[in-house]
Structures are given as C-alpha cells and as structure tokens.
Specification:
750 residues, alpha+beta, Aldehyde Ferredoxin Oxidoreductase Protein, subunit A, domain 2, 4 domains, globular
C-alpha cells in the first residue's frame, strides 16, 4: 500500500476487544483517508438517534493519506464522532506529532465504540493492542497524564499520546482531546465523547515506515513547495495596527495572497492577526456587539504580537511543517509555580479572552491558555461562554448571587479567571456554563438566548462575517456548524484554486468591499469550491495554513498522485471532496438535523447592524447565500438535503442502501409551504408581537418558514427601533415564531 495502510483498528470498550479490519484500495480511491475515511464509516456504523455520550457513538482518530509520505504541511490528525454539543456530524482537527504515529502503528484510523466499566487507556505499537487500566490517571490534567504515560511506556522511540483532562472526564460539551501537552482537537465536544467512554488516553508506539508510490516525484514536489513557501521580511507589530486601519478604510481591497500568511505566521504565528484583525473588523468585540471603538489600541496594545513573541523561548514545527507557527512561552503564575511554560496562545484564544471580553490583561490570557490546555477545554467555546455570561450579568440576567460573588463586568480579568476556573471544574455557576452557550441559555432562561451566539449550538470562532460574509455562510452550511476552518471569501482568494481547477472564477486584483455582501451565484460557486477543497485536504491530512498558501505553492493534487500512485486531475479530486461533504450532510439528515437550523446567530450577520466601527451598517442575506450554496453543490435548494441525482452522481447510492428512510423526498413532491403547514386548529391565526416584551433578537425572523416576519432595516446605519414587521398575506399560522421566541413576546390570535 502507498500513502495508506489499508487497515483500521476497531476497539470495543464494552467488550474489551480490539479487531483489525482491512479496507480495499477502491475505498481510498473514493474517500481518501482522514476525514473521508471517518465520514464513510461513521455514517454507516453510528445508528440513527444514537446518544452522543452513549455506547453506540463511535469516536474516530484518523490520519491523512499524505501524512508521512514526504509531503509538507501534512501532519494533521482528526477526531470525529456524533457531536454532543450540536448533535450533528462532529470533527476536530489537530497538529503536533500524533498523526504520523497512527500510521506508524500500521493503521489509517482507530475507531472506538462502547463504554468501559472503568477508566482505561489504549496502548498500540507492540505485538497486540492493549486496553489497560487508568484509574490512577483519572482526574489528572492533560500535561500530567501525558508525562506519566510517556515515562511508563517509553522505549526506543518516544510514544505519542492523545488524552483528555478533567473537562472531558466531567463530560463538558466543550471539551477537547489533547496531544503534545497543549495542542488540542478542541471543537465539537469530542473530549466529552472520549470521557463518556471512560477512555483517558491513547498511547502510540509504532515505528513502521510510510512510503509513497513515487518517492522521486514526492521529493521533487516537496522541494519546490519548500522554496515557494518562504515568507517575506516583516516590520514590527505596530505596522499591523496601521495595516488593519488602512485596509478597513479602503473601498477596494487587494486580493489576498498566501505569501502574506507565510510572512505573518512564519514570524509571529497566528497572534500576528491580533491587532490587525481588531482594527480591520475581523475580530468580534464585546460578544459580537462591539467594535474596535470599544477595544481601542490603548487596550489592544496589550496583545501586540511583539509582546507575545517576547515571551517565546522556543519556536517549534508540527510534523512535516516548514512554517513553524508554534512556540513555547515562559509562564510565571503565582500559586502555580510548577507551571513553568505554556504553548504560545493562538489568535483564537487571545481574542476569545481579549477583545471578545474587553480584557486587556495579557497575563490572564497566558494563564487561562494553560489552564484550559490542562483541563482539555476548547478556548473558543470557553471564551464565548464567558462573553455570554458577561452580557447576562450586564443585563441583570445573572447577579452576584448567581455567580457566587464573581464580578463579571466587561474587562474584569480576575472575574474572568475565576469563572473559567469554575467552568473547568464544573463548580457552582461553572457547572451551568461548562456545556457552552446554548445549553447555558436553556438553563438560565430569562431571554438569555439573545446573548447566546452560536451556529447550531457551537460557538463561532473569532472571525466576523460582517467583515467577510463567507465566515457566516460556512459556519451555517457546514455539517459541523460554527467552524471557521472550512471556508470564507478570503479563503477562496488564498486557496487560488482557479490556477489548478478548470472553470472556477478568478478574482480581480482589487475587490470592491460592498460587493462582498451581495448574494450571487459566483459566491455560491466559490463557497462550493472551498468546501470541496477543504474536505479533500482534510482527507489528505493537510494543514489549513499550508492550504492557505495557495494550490500553486502547496501541490495537494500532485502529492496525492505521487503518494498513492494515481493519475487523477484536480477536477476529479474536487469531486472526492464533494463526496465527503455530501456524506457528512447525509449523516446529519440521518440523525434528524434540519440544515436550516444550523444558521448562525443573527447578530453576527448584521441583524441589527452595528452603528460604529469598521463593520458599521453592514448586513447581508445569509439565507439566500445558504440556498444558493445548497443548489450549487447539488443539494435541495429549500431543504439543504442532497438530491437523489447528486447521491447517484457521487456513487453514494449503495452507502444509502440500508438507510432508505433518510433519502430526500423529491422537491417536486413537496413544497416549502406543505412542509410547514399549520398545526390543526391554528389555521387563520396570526402572530401578535408585544413590543413591550420583545427584545428584537430576530429569532422569529430567522425561523419563519415562509418569511412572513421580515426585518425592517430602515436606515442602513441606524436600524429601526422596532424592526420586525408581519406580512399577513404570507402567514400560514404555523406558530413557529411563538415557539422560538425566547421571551414569550409572540402570541397566536385569530
């Protein structure tokens, strides 16, 4: 086998049994490895309606097809399962050195089912895989767990370890899976899935080589890639503030090029974007309701990338990465003297606990970064949940009595630290917040859902759709909602796929800013390309940051041919990506998810618009963009369900054979109106909105199936004081608006 091993390991913890399974070469030709391998098997093997925290859910650890073949930027591994956070397809992507270790053990993936009666860890690499007791490890943080297991199992080769911390053990729905003492597969709540199975860790000790089919071609391609991936010299961090301010004022912005990513990430890592994104309007501020006016340079100066770089004592590279955006920083925390160092916090962490909370205390961010790495909790979701709690506190929904005396005033670093510590241990108010904003708002009530910013239940990352609508679109249409690593309009520019794939639109050198907010077919074509390409490179194990350098610099298509011995063109590989994306969407349909329900919170798309800052007055028609995308990729325009034509084109009919009840109803047999017919006795009823109670959160506008409730935008900068209007002729009396209203401001009356 070349590029792939042709084997997976199935581990049933209920039965304490490990079984190898062979997969044919035709399987990899159709789905690759990585996310494609997981999508194909989890769709088929996780039963409909499975409890995400029950024995029927399957947790996959998969390596990419290109990992270990001599290609570059290909050290990513992925965890996948049914998400307990969103109840959709869930996956999480991570770097470090765990991905090659999976293949060096002789497997393309490890699939965990069942529930162990006691804490255990899985050890692979000797003669036979072993399920071993982990009672002494249960309760320990991720760093301690990894250190103990490495000392316990280390032989000629240092083992690779992936483990959960206390957050995963306590089934926090925003828990992740950690490797390399702080790199986390953080999204989708998959640490809780691992905790529910009482699986503390996986230890990999294999040393089998992975070889490409054409080693000479692989070396040639990788040498060219290495030469083309070098960044340019960059000035100091203050330049990035000015760059962000200037770019935000331009009516026409230059098309983005991957060489900028190589330059910024090569010098500072992702924190290079901290102040640049704040001034540009890319970074959300004050739980998505503020702007750089609320977090000016005098505050954001604390997160200047030069300040963070000054703390770095070592730069490091993930497996096969020439860029090296990671780093280890000094840490000096009173009361935590044993914590000597931490991974350099990423942009997402800095902004989740910086601008989103109006926090300008860099020391608190370093501490929280290490605290959550050790607890095994997603910093994006954790920061967003703190922001939700702060807005609740600001509006009197939470009081000092509720928080146990913690002052959640915006920017109060000590209050933020105290709350995060309680979330990590599920104590007091932390127990309510430890499962993310959706669950917290359901528990708290009192209209708090208006402050719970999520897409399908997952908190979005620190990239504002009011600056780049593509982030809002992909957060809403992807089978794993709320993700920022799949696509955006700027990603399309950076991928530069038109240089390799025939028929894709080529952006101009300058892009009119206002045109970004138009819902048109070209946006749908570009978004489809983003999705297909991202699924392809996630099947190959390619890092997003490598992909953002451009397909002309990072030869993913050519590497795949060299690794597996295939002779396929870019267009055929893009269809592989579409097959994976469609299979993940079918997973959601199988598990009862309505695609429209994953739409991101209206605040993030300018409903209502901001009144100041670089995103002032911006809003866009997200629902039309979603429908345009569904139609372009071959899914039903109204429902988001893949059509039978698409299923047949992609060769998925046989996969669906045992799940015929999940097949979509042909569009011509079911109209949108019929799907949302009013309940018996509601015919003739119309919604009456109590303006004294209504908080104008627009949940009713978002959920109305026939758009009879509409947003009166008024002035594009100054929204109407009461922006929701009823078009009675369109109303079908379904009552959905009343059901979704968080403050019971809508009553149905004849």
């Amino acid at each position: 086998m070349h590029g792939y091993t042709g084997k997976i390991l199935n581990v049933n913890l209920t039965e304490n049994r490990c079984v190898e399974e062979q997969l044919p070469g035709s399987f990899y030709y159709k789905y690759l490895s990585g996310i494609g391998l997981a999508a194909r098997l989890l769709y088929e093997r996780i039963p409909k309606g499975a409890d995400p925290l029950g024995p029927d859910n399957i947790l996959a650890f998969v390596s990419g097809l290109l990992t270990g073949t001599g290609s570059l930027f290909t050290g990513r591994w992925m965890a996948a399962a049914k998400s307990p956070l969103t109840h959709t397809w869930g996956d999480a992507n991570c770097g470090g050195n765990f991905s090659p270790a999976i293949k060096q053990c002789g497997y393309d993936g490890i699939f965990i089912s069942g529930v162990s009666p006691r804490p255990v860890y899985l050890r692979i690499g000797g003669k036979e895989p072993q399920i071993l007791p982990a009672d002494d490890l249960w309760g320990k943080d991720t760093t301690s767990t990894e250190e103990i297991l490495i000392s316990r199992t280390a032989g000629k080769k240092r083992p690779a370890v992936a483990c959960i911390g206390p957050a995963g053990e306590k089934l926090s729905l925003i828990a992740g899976i950690c490797n390399d003492k702080g790199r986390i597969a953080a999204r989708s709540g998959l640490g809780a899935v691992m905790g529910s199975k009482r699986l503390k860790a996986i230890v990999l000790e294999g040393a089998r080589p992975v070889r490409p089919a054409d080693g000479a071609a692989m070396k040639r391609l990788s040498k060219i890639c290495s030469r083309r991936s070098h960044g340019l010299p960059m000035p100091g961090g203050k330049f990035l503030v000015l760059f962000g301010k200037l770019t935000a004022k331009l009516a026409f912005q230059p098309k983005m090029d991957g060489i900028l990513i190589a330059s910024m990430f090569g010098k500072w890592g992702t924190v290079s974007m901290n102040q640049f994104s704040t001034e540009l309007g890319d970074a959300p501020i004050k739980n998505w309701k503020g702007s750089c006016k609320d977090y000016p340079v005098r505050l954001s100066d604390s997160i200047d990338p030069d300040r963070i770089l000054a703390r770095r004592k070592m730069k490091y590279h993930c497996f096969s990465c020439p860029l090296g955006c990671g780093g280890i920083c000094d840490l000096n925390i009173k009361g935590k003297e044993e914590w000597l160092e931490t991974h350099k916090p990423e942009y997402e962490t800095v902004m989740s606990f910086g601008g989103l909370l109006l926090n300008s205390d860099l020391e608190s961010i370093f501490y929280i970064n290490e605290l959550l790495n050790r607890a095994g909790m997603d910093t994006i979701s954790a920061g967003a949940t703190v922001a939700f709690a702060q807005e609740c506190f600001e509006n009197g929904v939470l009081t000092l009595e509720d928080t146990g005396g913690i002052d959640l005033t915006w920017g109060n670093a000590q209050g933020i630290i105290a709350l995060v510590e309680k979330m990590a241990t599920r104590e007091g108010i932390g127990d309510i917040l430890a499962d993310g904003v959706k669950a917290a708002s359901e528990r708290i009530g009192k209209g708090s859902s208006a402050f719970a910013v999520s897409a399908g239940g997952q908190e979005p990352a620190m990239h504002d759709p009011r600056n780049d609508p593509g982030f809002g679109l992909h957060a809403s249409i992807e089978p794993t909602p709320g993700r920022h690593t799949i696509g955006a309009q700027q990603y399309y520019e950076l991928y530069a796929l038109w240089k390799k794939v025939k028929g894709l639109p080529k952006p101009g050198l300058l892009i009119r800013v206002k045109s970004k907010f138009n819902a048109d077919r070209e946006k749908a074509v570009c978004a489809k390309a983003n999705s297909c390409y991202s699924q392809l490179y996630n099947g190959a194990g390619v890092c997003l940051f490598g992909a953002l350098l451009g397909a002309h610099r990072v030869p993913v298509f050519e590497w795949l041919n060299a690794a597996a011995g295939w002779n396929r063109g870019p267009e055929e590989y893009m269809e592989v990506g579409r097959r994976i994306q469609t299979l993940k969407q079918l997973f959601n349909i199988k598990h009862g998810i309505a695609p429209i329900s994953l739409k991101i919170h209206p605040r993030t798309v300018g409903t209502p618009p901001l009144t100041e800052g670089p995103n002032r007055g911006r809003c866009f028609d997200l629902e039309k963009m979603m429908k345009d995308y569904w139609e372009e990729i071959g899914w039903d325009r109204e429902t988001g369900i893949p059509t039978m034509k698409t299923i047949e084109e992609l060769g998925l009919s046989a996969v669906m054979e045992g799940n015929k009840e999940d097949l979509p109803v042909p569009a011509e047999k079911e109209s949108s109106i019929a799907r949302h017919a009013p309940a018996k006795g509601n015919k003739g009823s119309k919604p009456i909105i109590d303006k004294k109670i209504c908080i104008a959160c627009t949940a009713c506008v978002q959920e109305c199936p026939v758009s009879c409730l509409v947003l009166k935008r008024g002035d594009s900068v100054k929204p109407s004081p009461f922006p929701i209007l009823l078009e009675p002729d369109r109303c079908i009396g379904c009552g959905f608006c009343g059901e979704c209203c968080p403050v019971d401001a809508i009553k149905m009356k004849n």
